Amino acid sequence: MAKPPQYGSGPFAPHGLPGHLAGFVEALRAKGLPVGPAETVDAGRVLTHVDLVDRNVLKEGLACALVRRATHRPIFDGIFDLWFPEALGSRSTRDSALEVPRTPEGDIDIPALRGMLADLLTADTPEARDELENVVSIIVDELGAYRSVGGESYSAYQSLQAISPEALTKKLLDGLLSTPGGPDEEGGTALQPFHEEVAKRNAAELVSRLRSAVENETRRRVAQRQGRERVASYAVPKVAEQVDFLRASDDDLVALRKSVAPLARLLATRLAARRKRYRAGAIDIRRTMRKSMTTGGVPIDLVLHSPRPARPELVVLCDMSGSVAGFSNFTLQLVHTLREQFSRVRVFAFIDTTDEVTEFFNAGSELGVSVSRMIREARLITYDGHSDYGHAFGTFVDNFSEALTGRSSLLVLGDGRTNYRDPNLAALAQMVTLAKHAHWLNPEPARQWPTGDSAAEAYRQLIPMHECRTAEHLAAVVARLLPV
Predict the structure, then answer these.
(1) DSSP one-letter code for 107
(2) Which of 165, 197, 298, 423 is the most buried (most CB within 10 A)?
(3) Helix (H) or strand (E) holding 472
(4) DSSP 290-317
(5) Residue 400 in contact with residue 348, Cβ under 8 Å?
(6) d(CA 247, CA 324)
(7) Tell me, what's the pLDDT at 94?
(8) Is the pLDDT of residue 68 over 60?
(9) Spatial separation of the C-alpha atoms in residues 262 and 138, rounded to whole Å
(10) Torsion from C-alpha of 251, 256, 259, 261, nearest 10 degrees
(11) In angstroms, what CA-CA distances link 388 with 394, 398, 469?
């Protein structure tokens, strides 16, 4: 029978509950959550006021103290389940009113099991949820167990493959479509498509709940055998801001898009504060020292430079080829949100040739729609659709060089991989000369810049190049580089 864990002793905390909490906080920090001493102290106070036996209350109390952003909650939940598991060992089904259906040979009857799971998932009562936990425990025990080099272990993938989520979804869908009150009773055929769509979404949501339950149970079992630190290192993802752009999955990119708005607000606040600070002008050292001659060399009266007259212009040139499209999309979204901080923003995109795409990013436009229109309508490909930085830079100089002025800041986005074609260093040098400021943001690790078909090492001799592998890197670089 599964035993409720004692968080202040045993395998959970060699130094008691405070030590266990400290380990939990360190695990959150390792995944990128910004948890400082103040939040840790608040979490300690939470432990003195909540009922430690009520796991849900404990979870929500610690989340209030330790989680700052909604996008960080899934990472917190994953770490919490490892450090504060529901139980130790296997769950017992002695008190269960249900028994897992079996074949005459004693194996689990998979088709009948799907029927049981469908009934438990659709019931959605406290009793059904408890029974579902017991059934999931048996599934992981008997269908997910396997022998490895280190001994017995468990696989959520193996458990789910045995159940076949696709077959379970079909069974749930058949049940939902046959429930009383469907469209055949009152709405006729007019409501049939709507009813089917609702049933499909409900079935997908129920199967997702089962998948999460199997994954959580598997993670709990494996953590008990291998150690929660080891399991956390690979089973719990990092925060979206720390995921490499070039390795980001579709889910990671969705999470990154959600993080753009708060990130842009933070950068806008920093830029506004810097601009306010510079309105009076920076100290003119030369004129201040000259004036100090009247006071015996003591610079009592400071002389300031004349303030800058207006907000700067920004010119963005981004590679939209498949290898770095995710990075460029995210950066364009950030720039799009920050556009009010500049007097003018012009955006140019390229794959093997360059075209202006500013019109697709007008104020109020939806970024996803803008990017789709840009890919569909802009002239980014001339011949084969592979990255050609040299030809793209040459096209920009020939057709759009007037975009760069003495007030412009040029931002180049891309990995600098030219497919062994002419890098056209002269064109880039001319662009850097025309702009007041110029910087290149590269999503590849700096150690890879001299490898393969990359011309990054040659380009960085002409323009400052910055490694921007994650959203955190990008925010830091943008906040530091963008002029006021």
Answers:
(1) S
(2) 423
(3) helix 471-481
(4) HHGGGGTT---S--BPPPP-SPPEEEEE
(5) yes
(6) 10
(7) 46
(8) yes
(9) 43
(10) -120
(11) 10, 16, 21
